[in-house]
Amino acid sequence: MKLAEFLRSQGFTGDPFAHTNAEEEDLLSEYFVPPPYFNSVRGQPTQPKSTIVFAPRGGGKTAQRRVIEEDSRDPDSEYLCVLYDRFPMRTTPTLDEHLDEICSRVFMGILITLENENLSGLAFERQHRLFLASEAARLDALGGQKFETLLRSMKSESRRAGDWVRNHSGPIKAIVSSVLGKKGIDLDPTMPWGPQIAKLPQASNHDRLSRLISIAQLIGYQSVYILIDRLDETPATSTDPKKSIDLVSNLILDLSAMEMPGLAIKVFAWDLSRDRYHELGGRPDRVREFQLAWQLSSLAEMMTKRLTAHSGSRIQSLNSMCEPSLDFDFHKLACHLAHGSPRDMIRLCNHVVAEHLDSNATEAILTESDIWKGVTQFSTEISTERCAKFLPDLMRLNSYRFTQATVANEYLKIKKQATQAKVSEWRKTSMITKVTEVPDSRARPQHLYGVSDPRLAMHVRPGVGRREVLEFFSFECTGCASVNFSDGPEEFICQNCQRTLTTNGTPSIMDRCAR
User: Fold this and answer.
1) Can you give the C-alpha Rg of the chain in angstroms?
2) 46-102 pLDDT, tens per residue?
3) Which of 44, 53, 128, 331 is the least buried, fewest Cβ under 10 Å from its Cβ?
4) Which of 200, 128, 139 is nearest to 174 (CA)?
5) Does 169 score more than 60 pLDDT?
6) What number does CATH give the domain 389-512?
7) Three-state DSSP class for 515?
8) What is the pLDDT of residue 239?
């Protein structure tokens, strides 16, 4: 059975699991589930405030950013919105480098607005004309590729930007001079612009941005929004949370930029970079922070909306795709195994569907075998992505909870210093966490660590069935609802709220998913 046939037989008009990147989602607005704080992140254009959102990979950072962009496309939008997701090729660009990039993008947004909006009654004063001429001159040195990058940053203006380029085919200078010429700003596109404006006063990048905001307000906007995204998607930052926040640290630590009147800088950052931001001197008392943690109910709602959007409202649950005899709720199980990530929930479903298609089944219905085979492949994939170089050591641990002493003396047979380094690296994967402190043989406190991710919990026990891991070794805290993994004493400590739990009195993931 081919995928198209399976989806059609199930009642889908499109593939609900086709994309795991919000950048590619055509129907995002139909299944976007706003986090509790989203209205605060979006804010009020009349009183713009910079904010930082910390969220895990696949946790919905780009989805939030895109919704803010789409809101700005409304004809009554009060803010000019530009995207800053391509950065100077340095480990830690300077503040001036960041501001220069941002100024270019804001200027581009102003140009597109001047071309497309009905601003016939607008007349710039001489100081504004001279300043815009100086900004135009800065484009003189840009190549076509840089110009295209600036255009791509105008995603909130994507349709109008495309129309603009089509209506003004030709050199960059001809396009810019044509637009500015309609507002009384004459620049000869056949001559170098540098000499034409060499005598104009040169402003600092900070002052340039402030003046560009004033002009944006002059042409009808209340404020300017700068959306910073994809910090962890450069070659230097993709594996290092610290480097991802270092990339924009000189900008987001500068309060004169973050609190500039008329400006809101919205930063969407990797959650593992939060501690580094604070180490560098981040000011949550001045720049508000939000941390995204998906609730199971929100993940379930997201998937329901996704299925509904791609099926003409015919399918609202993953259970509708499964054999009726299934004794557990697959929709709920997928929420648990997504471990707080909408992207991972979609990936899991992709694996399960792929297993069904590979089974040569004649019926378009997911079986229990399809689900557990898909869960196995999904768990292996996630565990390998997050901690491939640590898996050989982790699979030698004969317990879900351990101290450095047990790792050194019982499992890996290595020195204490080497163990400390290993455990520190394991924790960076976010699949291993510090649970609590326990006494050692001399009654001195030592850290107790544990597996916190269900995908890793299943993967490191290849001799135990995936369902059995979730049924007999997972425990959902009755106080804070966090999931713990334990194979030790009957009593154990919750890794999140430090509540004492018992293996007999605490529900498992499979208990929570029972039908």
Assistant:
1) 27
2) 999 999 999 998 999 999 999 999 999 888 889 999 999 999 888 899 999 999 999
3) 44
4) 139
5) no
6) 1.10.10
7) coil
8) 83
- With b for 16 or more beta-carbon neighbours within 10 A and e for fewer, the 45-81 pattern comes to beebbbbbbbbbbbbbbbbbbbbbbbbbeeeebbbbb
Which pLDDT value is given to residue 199?
A: 55
| E strand segments, 206-353 | 223-228, 263-270, 288-291
CA–centroid distance for 449 within its chain? 27
Domain coordinates in residue numbering, the chain:
3-9+295-387, 49-291, 389-512
Could you give the CA distance from residue 394 to residue 377 in angstroms, rounded to a whole number? 18
Read off the pLDDT of residues 324-372 as tens digits, 9 standing for 90 and up: 999 999 999 999 999 999 999 999 999 999 999 999 888 999 999 999 9
Tokens of 306: 């996704």
The one-letter amino acid code at 144 reads G
Angle at 427 between CA 423 and CA 429, to 5 degrees: 125
Predicted structure pTM score: 0.87
Which of 269, 225, 254, 229 is closest to 43 using CA atoms? Answer: 225
Half-sphere exposure of 397 (CA within 13 A, CB side): 29
What pLDDT shows up at residue 382?
97
- Residue 69 CA to residue 81 CA, distance in Å, equals 6
C-alpha 125/C-alpha 179 separation (Å) is 17
Nearest to 204 by CA among 256, 270, 249: 256
For residue 227, list its beta bridge partners. Answer: 83, 266
